[in-house]
């Protein structure tokens, strides 16, 4: 049976975790996949062309897109997956640290999107998938700045989708909950530490580590990314995994006070 040709996909942050699984799954689904890593020589899935890109650098992004176009001649799908986490009390991070986080998680999305949109507009077709998080629509104690970046991605994506629909381009959000990756091991720590938060932070740390151990696999999230990429009538949001779907429903239908209490209990914070 001939392989389906779904066009060219570009996946940022494809050397590990969700990005790696997504690149592999998209390649299996029929896309010609280019993946990126900040580090030269990073290995990706078999059949995926790996390129170097720093999403915080305009010239690096421009060079990446030019290289993909020279090779493939088009870009049909952009998956904005590259991102970093920051764990700690919001007050414990300086404005400079918050700005650096936004430069990757939010402005990196904008840089990549702005770089591919002229191509997609000429093609009169294309799809952009932005990796959000359950933290993009619920409170996230001790992930406040990370959650702020994901809330920003949500607002940007929703608005951008309305702007682009008439041009044949759609924007969707994939929203994982806790996922079994190295995310927790690679979390950025605040650039200052305050004793006032130490006790509560210790309890939240245990709760988060436990949730990640029990979380969805990267492959589960990758399946959702493939669905978002191939649906003939794409939705705006795709919760990825059982927990993400549950949280999404609870956030919509459970009274605010009850949701607040449940969240604090889950994170081992005083109710």
UniProtKB/TrEMBL annotation:
Keywords: Oxidoreductase. Its EC number is 1.1.1.-. Belongs to the short-chain dehydrogenases/reductases (SDR) family. SUPFAM superfamilies: NAD(P)-binding Rossmann-fold domains (SSF51735). Transmembrane segments: none annotated. The keyword Oxidoreductase applies. It comes from Azospirillum lipoferum (strain 4B). This is Short-chain dehydrogenase/reductase. It comes from the Bacteria. GO terms for molecular function: oxidoreductase activity.
């Amino acid at each position: 049976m001939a392989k389906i040709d779904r066009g060219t996909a570009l996946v940022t942050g494809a050397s590990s975790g969700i990005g790696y699984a997504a690149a592999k799954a998209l390649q299996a689904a029929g896309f010609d996949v280019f993946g990126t890593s900040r580090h030269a020589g990073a290995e990706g899935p078999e059949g995926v062309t790996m390129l170097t890109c720093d999403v915080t650098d305009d010239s690096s992004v421009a060079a990446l897109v030019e290289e993909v176009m020279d090779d493939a001649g088009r870009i049909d799908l952009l998956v904005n997956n590259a991102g970093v986490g920051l764990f700690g009390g919001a007050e414990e991070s300086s404005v400079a640290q918050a700005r650096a986080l936004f430069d990757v998680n939010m402005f990196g999305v904008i840089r990549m999107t702005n770089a591919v949109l002229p191509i997609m507009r000429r093609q009169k077709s294309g799809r952009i998938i932005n990796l959000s998080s359950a933290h993009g629509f619920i409170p996230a104690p001790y992930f406040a700045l990370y959650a702020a970046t994901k809330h920003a991605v949500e607002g940007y994506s929703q608005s951008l989708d309305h702007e682009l629909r008439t041009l044949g381009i759609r924007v969707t959000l994939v929203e994982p909950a806790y996922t079994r990756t190295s995310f927790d091991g690679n979390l950025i720590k605040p650039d200052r530490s305050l004793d006032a938060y130490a006790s509560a932070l210790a309890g939240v740390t245990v709760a988060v580590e436990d949730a990640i151990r029990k979380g969805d696999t990267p492959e589960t999230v990758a399946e959702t990314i493939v669905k978002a990429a191939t649906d003939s009538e794409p939705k705006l949001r795709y919760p990825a995994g059982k927990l993400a779907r549950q949280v999404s429903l609870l956030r919509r239908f459970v009274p605010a006070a009850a949701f607040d209490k449940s969240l604090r209990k889950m994170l081992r914070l005083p109710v």
